[in-house]
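Course assignment 3, question 2. Fill in each field.
Student: A.L.
Task: Predict the tertiary structure for the chain below.
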Amino acid sequence: MATLGWIAILISLVVAAYTTIAAVLGARRQMPALLTSARNGILVFTALMTVAIGVLTLALLTRDFSIALVANSTSRELQMLYTLTALWSNQAGSLLFWSWILSLYSAIVVLQKWNQEHDLMPYVIATLMAIQAFFAFVLSFVSSPFERWWMVAGKPVMSMFAPTGATLFIPPDGQGLNPLLQHPAMAMHPPMLYLGYVGFTIPFAFAIAALISGNLGPAWLRTTRRWTIAPWLFLSIGLLLGGRWAYDVLGWGGYWGWDPVENAAFMPWLAGTAFLHSVMVQERKGMLKVWNIGLVIITFSLVLFGTFLTRSGVIQSVHSFAESSIGVWFLTFIAGTTLAATLLLFVRLKDLKSERDFDSVLSRETFFLLNNLLFLSASFAVLWGTIYPLFSEVVYKQKLTVGPPYFNQVTAPIFSTILLVMAIIPMIGWSGVTREKLLNKLLLPFAISLALAALTFALGVREWIALGGYWLAFFVIASTVIDIGQGSRARAKNSGENIFVAMKNLIARNRRRYGGYLIHVAVAMMAIGIIGSQVYATDVTRALARGESLNVRDYTLTYENLSPDFPSGEATITSAAVAVYRNGARVATLSPARSFFDRAGETQTLPAIYSTPQEDLYVIIAGWENNYSTVTFRAYVNPLVFWLWFGGVALVISTLIAALPDAREEARARADNLARGTAKA
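Answer field:
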């Protein structure tokens, strides 16, 4: 079975190399047969990678411990869901999963766009398959998911093929899965991140194709718009699930610790967000062409860098894998890809001149440029904080860590300014606006947000930083809601529709614009949750005997009993029952627990959470003494954290609205298809 999987990957390497060359030669020499073979090469590569990942999945499900990956990541006791997640819990399996997802994306692109983008598709295929050739090479010769255990002179050795004098070693059971990964969110978090990471390869490939072919108009942008929104959405979901996993598993009461691998996913999200805004300027005004291709290159480079961080283990993280030999290969590939793409961009600079200048400082295109600068500044700040331990080790011969205080202090002003820009943009048109008119438009949302901030102050918020953050979030919400409301009223007046039907039809007619505005509202809600939970969190730790209580904020927690040592998969779980009272009334019974994984020799904290829109009560077991007679509990109160998760769900729904085609896009698509048909005739 292992040999079949390895052969499939090896053949895919040959196919990728051939397809890359065939696509370029076919385009340069105008050879349709060669181009068709390149197109088929993408499909063959997809089939081969599907065979490889199918073989590995079957090996996991059948507990084939002759394959090292299976033996190192699973056990006979491991539940089926976590057995499947073991596929991406290790370096080699995750790289195979990366390549397989890209092969599926590539096949879909080829099948969809082959007859529409004749000039671009050969170079799109060449770019995609050049990237795949690298991954196939690594999977074949550097980090194979099909290596087996061999006994050499009484010592186990991992190798694809038998070393001299070796015998195959099949352990009776596996080592089990990392306890931190045995959580339902981990069944979805990594796949969402991969779908996001890998998806950004498609707009990168189209950008490179546009640079090589010289077709630098807006066509490549329109083609890749949804191919950018989709990975951005998946990456957003992945970040949210990762935050929820940290909140539910790590037991420290938080959801974001500026971990290097969290940052690795956040950086391309920031750059991709800048690109999604910037493309609208080129489509509408023919401006920011260099910015758009540059942002695609930066986003993809950050994707590769994030993959490198996660897979090489050069920076310590609860997510990353151990250090391995792929680090040098990845760094070389990142440097080569980024350098080649940047050189292409510089070669085409003269062809990427803007078609017009900025009409006004107070115009939407100017604020979108400011938006780009802010998002890239945030991305660079996160990048610098993430790689600084490596930099300090090389330069100062001492690894200096950078903690959350750096990230919070540096990024908070940037994100605050982004919120301010989000509040202003709905009030500015593409052709600009006078200062007086803008001030008049902003007066109502400013007054409403100021009143809400004053109410927040009256309710007890005294931290000026928190008040400022709340005001900005209220400003965004008020500005956006007023703009949508004014548009709805105007439509209702002209069409005779009631206000709610008018609003629905208004959004349906321009889903891209209003879906984006709804995303802004969702981000503002998330900001409210982040500010409340970061600034006003409270925690209390106390050892309790049965029947004793502790107080935290308005809650009284009473320890009732303990249920020790019941088995669950690879773990043995000890759970407590804690009664929660508020204002004298019992509102919940929480069951915080601790899991002990005997195979790994590790303990995992399982918090219990009582959640309301106002706050979360978050309780963990910190330890116990005297044969469970005394249990130490730690209780956190995290104000408004509900709005982080609620805003995240709203962001996902709003993104789906923005991604759907609206009436204008459908009309443009019909016109483009008609034009292509006329050209062929």
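Instructor remarks: The chain is about 60% helix and 15% strand. Residues 318-323 have pLDDT under 50 and may be disordered.
Grade: pending
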